[in-house]
Amino acid sequence: MGADPELHVAVGGGAEDRLSDLPDGILEHVLSFLPAEDAVRSSVLSWRWRGAWAHAPALNLSDERHLQGRFLSFARAVLARYGARDIPALDVVIGCKSNLGPGTPAWLHYAMERVVGSISVSVRCRDPWTG
């Protein structure tokens, strides 16, 4: 049996980077589904990805990965580095045990001034009886 010329298998890296060949709009759309932390981290994948997150049509911020008091700093930095004045959509998730502090209302007000599409702010609490 001969090898299929259309089948390319890469083991241990060295694979062709097809994601970087996507048009900007599609790459940015894909990044809009990720949590902001992961979208920002994608900048290290290749030169082509640097800053792509800052043009994503949606930002997803959550305090789940941040130590108390650090989420607001990260959220401010993300908004400050977003590539356009207007943010198409913003989704913010805050946990019940979050301690966002007194700067939260000012940050939310600033965020609301920049979002031109939809904005969602959710507080998620786990039921102690069901986990």
From TrEMBL:
An example of a Pfam family matching this protein is F-box
User: Which segments constitute the F-box domain?
Assistant: 16-50
Give the transmembrane ranges. none
In terms of Gene3D superfamilies, this protein maps to: 1.20.1280.50
SUPFAM superfamilies documented for this protein? F-box domain
Q: What is this protein called?
A: F-box domain-containing protein
> To which species is this protein native?
Dichanthelium oligosanthes
